[in-house]
Amino acid sequence: MKQIIIATKNKGKAIEFKQFFSDYGIEAMSLLDMQGDIPDVEETGTTFEENAALKAEQMASLFDKPVLADDSGLMIDALDGRPGIYSARYAGEPKSDQANMNKVLEELTAFTALEERTARFVCVLAIAVPGEKTIFRKGYCEGTIAFSEAGENGFGYDPVFIPKGYQETMAQLSAGVKNSISHRKNAILHLDEWIQDIL
Fold it and tell me: How far apart are CA 14 and CA 1, in angstroms?
């Protein structure tokens, strides 16, 4: 495999994956690099795996090349795993990070001890190679939900998520620290063995 397409239009995510694959001599291109009108894939799955596979498989058949897609979100134990696959639009449309955080903090008001507010970020990577079975790799970042938001570095639920072993929220950590402990980074590390196999 000399090339792989990353099914994302997110610049930051694209850069992270490109750097990872370049270490193996694999050229990674994101949807931002592709020509033409690329249709959005509807995420109709009921799990992170299903949504990641939908994106990877549809793009793999469109371009006839290996494609990596990811689906990720926040799971809070006290909320029975919500917001889960609905993390990006938890407070409804139009999607708003602020409204999502407000909703989560509101729903957790009855949980007044930090140890009752355990949560994790989950990232599932799906790799679809035309004619082959889709493979999955998973990564987690464990932590707790803060009582109020803090920090400017980050997006999504970062200002209310305190990673395990830290006192600060994800949005208070430097980009370097955040990227080294993130759920996406942990999922990418699990890709390493798969790539070693195919190389």
Answer: 18
Range with the poorest average pLDDT among 32-41, 76-85, 107-116: 32-41
Active site residue 37: no
Domain range annotation of the chain: 3-198
Alpha carbons 36 and 40: distance in angstroms, whole number? 13
φ, ψ dihedrals at 150, nearest 5°: -155, 145
- Cα separation, 193 vs 7, in Å, equals 21
pLDDT single digits (tens) 131-171: 999 999 999 999 999 999 999 988 899 999 999 999 999 99
pTM of the model: 0.89
Pick the CATH number of 3-198 from 3.90.950.10, 3.20.20.30, 3.30.1490.190, 3.50.50.60: 3.90.950.10
The active-site residue out of 23, 37, 71, 80 is 71
